[in-house]
Write a structure and sequence with these properties.
By secondary structure, the protein is mainly alpha-helical. About 55% of the residues lie in helices and about 0% in strands. It has one domain. Helix 2 crosses helix 3 and helix 3 crosses helix 4. About 15% of the residues are buried.
Length: about 80
C-alpha cells in the first residue's frame, strides 16, 4: 500500500467505530462520521431510542460494538 492509497482504505463507504471521539464504544461517533452528521445528534437519537425500545437498542448497540472494526489510528489526520 502506497502512502497515497489511504483514501481508498478509509472511505465514507465503510463503517468504523470512532474511538477518538467515543463516549462508550465509539459506535455513535462512527455512525456520525459515516453519515456526515453531528455525533451529538446521533447520541441523542440513540438515548431517545433507548427510552422507547430499550432491549433492541442495547442489543443492536452491543452487536455493532463487537462487529464494527476500529478505525485505524493513522486515519485521524
Amino acid at each position: 500500500m502506497k502512502f497515497n492509497d489511504r483514501d481508498d482504505v478509509i472511505s465514507r463507504n465503510k463503517l468504523y467505530r470512532n474511538t477518538r471521539k467515543a463516549r462508550l464504544m465509539g459506535v455513535c461517533a462512527g455512525l456520525a462520521d459515516f453519515y456526515d452528521t453531528d455525533r451529538h445528534l446521533v447520541r441523542i437519537l440513540t438515548i431517545v431510542s433507548g427510552f422507547f425500545f430499550t432491549t433492541p437498542t442495547i442489543c443492536i448497540y452491543l452487536i455493532a460494538a463487537v462487529i464494527l472494526p476500529r478505525r485505524p489510528g493513522w486515519s485521524y489526520l
